[in-house]
Amino acid sequence: MDRPKRKLKIGDSSTYLWPRRFEFVSPFSVEECASRLEAKDSRGFFYNTRTEVWRVGDDTYAFNLVRGDRSRVGARGYLKRWEAQTTHVTGEVGIEPEFILIILTFMMGMLFFLAMGIRDGNLAGATALALFLAFLSSIGVYFTKIQRDFAFYLIEDTLHVVNET
Predict the structure, then answer these.
(1) 115 in the same domain as 90
(2) What is the domain extent for residue 57?
(3) 137: which of 106, 114, 143, 159 fits an S-S bond (Cβ 3.0–4.6 Å)?
């Protein structure tokens, strides 16, 4: 649990795409919250969940949670001792910026098919392929946002929210 000190960047300028911030009080001690999050590290058939938790101070832990291998949905935050048996949890969950490369690849494919269709005079077929790629990319964005929300609820359910602040 103790790792070299690292800084998390949580604040006004998120590095995630479509970030969702969270802040709540957990009824568990900070050590219990840390071990509950570490216990969520798992390998599944469709999705893996990787968690890292490390101490950054006497009463504070930092955590990273990455959900999925392809969608790269992540969460990061802090666990701070609130009172003897409660913990203040803050952080954000979102989609890693590398995901935009997948979307850009699909967009380049759409442009390629449209350009080839215009050049060869087969605009209908090229348009159909371009629309199919647009459909695939929108499905990818949709399911990735679902995974982002799943990561949010995974943290919330693991630490049992008492009240939101």
Answers:
(1) no
(2) 17-97+147-160
(3) 106
